[in-house]
Hints:
The chain is mostly beta strands. It has one helix at about 50-55; strands spanning about 1-10, 55-60, 65, 70-75, 80, 85-90, 90-95, 100-110, 115, 120-125, 130-135, 140-145, 145-150, 150-155, 165, 170, 175-180, 185, 190, 195-200, 210-215, 215-220, 225-230, 235-240, 240-245, 250-255, 270-275, 275-280, 285-295, 295-305, 310, 320-325, 325-330, 335, 340-345, 345-350, 355-360. The protein has a 21-stranded parallel beta sheet that branches. A 13-stranded parallel beta sheet has the order 2-4-7-9-11-14-17-20-23-26-31-34-37. Strands 1-30-29 form a three-stranded antiparallel beta sheet, with no helix packed on it. Strand 29 (about 285-295) and strand 30 form a beta hairpin. It is elongated.
Amino acid sequence: MVLIAVTAAVSYGCGETPNTEGEASPPAVSPAIGALEFTHGTNAAKSAAELAASECLVADEDTVLASDVDCILVDADGITIDLNRFTVHGAILGMSGWNDVQVTNGAVSNGAIILGARTVLSRLTVRDSDDFVVQLGFDSVISRSLFERNDVAVDLFWGNRIEVRECRFVENSIAINIASDNDSRVIGNRFEGNGVGVRVFDEDFVGSSGSRIVRNLFRDNDLGVYVLAQDEANDTEISWNLFRSNSSSGITVILGCSTDFSPLCGGRDTMIEKNLLLRNGDDPRTLTGGLPLPDDWQEYEVTPDDGLTVFAVDGAADGVTASRNVAIRNADLGIEAEGIVDGGANRAAKNGNPLECVGVSCS
Length: 363
């Protein structure tokens, strides 16, 4: 891993959200993925008024499509929309009713799906869409669907306890973005050829805690799992995953530490265990951004080229534990994680750096 970090004092301008102490909070920092940055200030999904003007289908009862449509406005709770193998060439958007909705069996192209609590999405193909594509309320489930060539395919920002399972993500800029939601579940999915497979990022310095990323395949992505914990994003579990041939590290964790916002550092109680990290880091992407420090702001530049990379400021890494991971034939180290808790039984072999592991003992 190549690291460049410069610590500097920061002054914050007007127009920023005050914190609970009445002082200005720093703006959320979105780390660059190549030339792409995604934060929640604007969303290119069409507004309800724009969609209504385009003569969308209005679904106010159970609906089965008989042809392709330009867009769907959902105007009732508790309904099922069967796309019947047809395509929505635009958005599916909740209006006055949008909770407890099921959407299944078809495609959404060049649009978005924005619905409320307890939404169920299944057997969908979602492709070729800009900005934040799928945004759902709490207790929603996404399953057995394909997401390809989107900007941010699934954006977990507006609800909690959302589960994504048995889906395939191909060539998205960011496949799943956990940017505020707590208790997200990402289970049994395939991530192939994306910029980032799963990003865990407490964008507004709160939330994104309790994520479970379990039994997934991450192959040929720029980054497999990328955790950026500015001040929270705590209690993350990354376990039983296969990371193979990702251009950068299979798992990258970057941690901040700011007593201005809470008495503790970000990424507390993170557990990384029982993962197989194989042939990652051959063409690493450089990550840039900023992290909070007490009274300061640290800009960083990290090039992760290991199986697992953990970088922390101000001693923040001791909230992370790595245990029973296996790292083989990665470009630099199998595990590079100074200052973390060594949970034991990590193994490494035939990695590019003869040290094999730094920060934990590897057999």
